[in-house]
Each structure stands twice: as C-alpha cells, then as structure tokens.
Design goal:
Keywords: Antibiotic resistance, ATP-binding, Nucleotide-binding, Transport. It is a peripheral membrane protein. The chain has 306 residues and is an alpha/beta fold. It has helices at 44-52, 74-77, 95-103, 120-126, 142-154, 172-188, 200-206, 224-231, 253-264, 278-290, 295-305; strands spanning 6-15, 18-28, 33-37, 59-64, 80-83, 160-164, 192-196, 209-214, 217-222, 235-241, 244-250, 268-274. Helices cover 36% and strands 26% of the residues. Helix 8 crosses helix 10. It is globular, with a radius of gyration of 22 Å.
Length: 306
C-alpha cells in the first residue's frame, strides 16, 4: 500500500490551560475522501489549520504528504489545495483571467508526474463556469462564486485538497455536479480529500471514511455503513398487505424479508427497509460522548471499525 497522504499520531493542541486537541490519530491514503465531522468547538478548524501548516501544534507527530507541516516549504504547499468557506477578494477580476493568473504561481512546481497548473479552459469546464468565464467575479451569484472558490482551490492540481463546507450556497443541481467533480478528482487524479461539513447527507454520499471529532479526540472512525451497523444492529422493515400497514424491527432484515415473501407472496406491497443513517449514528455518538457514556465503549468502537 502507498504511504499515507495524511499520517496524524497523538496530535495535541493547548491554548493557555485549555486542551483543544487531546490526542487525535488518523490516516488518509491516496484517492480517499475523508469527512471530519463534529459539533462546533470540537477542534475541527484547529486540526485542519495544523495540517495546512497555518498553526503550530503543541505535541504529536504529523506528516502531510510525507512532510511535517510545521516545516513545509513552497514546493510542499504547491501540492496542497484549500477551499475555504468563503472568499471576498478579487471582485474586479474576470473569472478566466483570475484562474489563469493564479495558475502561473504553480508552473515552477510542475513535475513529470503532476503537470501544474490545471489547463484553465478544462478547469472552468470542470467546475461548470463556462457560461460565466468572462464575467467579473463581483457579478457572480453566490453559487457561481462557490464554484470559483473550488476552482481556485484545485487550480494547482493538488495531491491533497482541504474542503471546508464546499457546497454552502449550492442549489441541488450544482451540488450534484460538485459531487461528480469530487469523484473525478479522486478516481482520475487520485486526489486525497479531507472534507469538513455540517451536511451529513453530503458526507455520507462523498466520504469513504468518516471521522467524528468530539472533546478534542476522534470518537469514531469508519465508513458510514460501518458506523451505522456498529451503533444499531436492527433495521426497520415496513410493508403493507391488503391496505394494512406493518412495521417490524429485525437484526437480519434480508432473512426477514425473504421469509415474509415466502409466507405472503405477491400480497406484500410498499416494502421499505430503513437502517440507521449517518445522522442517526452521529447524533447517538455525540450524545453519548456529551453525556459521559463514551469512555471505553467508544474506544472499543473505534478500534473495531478501523
């Protein structure tokens, strides 16, 4: 297996006498999408800023693309992409001109393996801004501006991309197109993505792995399906027969449904199977943590899904 793009071990951060991060440990590999979730104040922003090299940590071992971010140089930074929640600069620039200008800063860091920057026409097309390429940035709508933010973040063809609430302000169609872009980056470019979002549905759709950060440490680490199955062994099966509705909880929904059809055949209608969603899992984990019930049980949970 290739070396991890992110290798974080026992990351700690203290402000004065307050411990914000108390031992964060995780890895991310090439082409993987990892979602970092957690309540406000959990330490997500601090973690991301340390990984980006913008904030010095108090303790722990951190490697980003094989480099300690506290000592990363410009060549290392050229391999990263960052999409912030919002930018308010560059209003007078035209979209295509701005991306072309920003791309020139990456030319010196092109390699045989990664040609930088991204060709501007291809980039404009990839983020869905063809029709707006010659507009001034200040004339763009909120959703169009968010697409430009994404384009700015990936203009240098990053090997690692940090996305902070990337689809805030997107309409459903733009959100779907953005998700397609993320899949393109990971599948074709092998870009590793660390995503922070409050949109749990988006995290479930995009992320290969979910990290839940609470109280300064990772309290869960696994795919959305792994987390849901660990938190809830039962699925809810709903169906109807002759107009009457039924609901049943089962630990083996597949077997139950098979037996249901064996018994009632074509009279079974409106069949629906509902398992715990990522939102259900997230809320249960954070609630348990905040109520003090986490402890050893959540450490066992984290170990089991890794």
């Amino acid at each position: 297996m290739a070396a991890p793009v992110l290798d974080v071990r026992d990351l700690r951060m203290r402000y004065g006498s307050t411990d914000v991060l108390t031992g964060v440990t995780f890895t991310a590999h090439p082409g993987e999408v990892v979602a970092l979730l957690g309540p406000n104040g959990a330490g997500k922003t601090t973690t991301i800023e340390i990984l980006e090299g913008f904030r010095m940590r108090s303790a722990g071992d951190v490697r980003v693309l094989g480099v300690d971010p506290a000592h990363g140089d410009e060549r290392w930074r050229a391999r990263l992409g960052v999409v912030l929640q919002s930018w308010r600069d560059h209003a007078k620039w035209r979209v295509r001109e701005l991306l072309s200008h920003l791309g020139t800063y990456y030319t010196a860091y092109s390699t045989d393996q990664v040609r930088r920057p991204w060709a501007v026409d291809e980039l404009v097309d990839a983020v869905g801004l063809n029709a707006h390429a010659h507009k001034r940035v200040g004339q763009l709508s909120g959703g169009q501006r968010r697409r430009l933010d994404v384009a700015i973040g990936i203009v240098g063809r990053p090997e690692l991309l940090f996305l902070d609430e990337p689809t805030a302000g997107f309409d459903p169609e733009a959100r779907r197109e953005f998700h397609d872009l993320v899949h393109r980056l990971t599948d074709l470019e092998q870009t590793t993505i660390l995503l922070t979002t409050h949109d749990l549905d988006e995290a479930e759709k995009l992320a290969d792995r979910i990290l839940i950060l609470a109280g300064g440490s990772i309290i869960a680490n696994g795919s959305a399906d792994q987390l849901a199955r660990r938190m809830s062994s039962e699925a809810e099966v709903k169906w109807s027969r002759h107009g009457e509705r039924f609901v049943h909880a089962s630990t083996d929904a597949t077997r139950f449904v098979r037996e249901l059809f064996q018994q009632y055949g074509d009279s079974v209608a409106d069949l629906e199977i509902r398992r715990a969603t990522l939102e259900d899992t997230y809320m249960a984990l954070v609630r348990d943590f905040e109520s003090g019930r986490s402890g050893a049980a959540l450490r066992d949970f984290e170990a089991a899904v890794q």
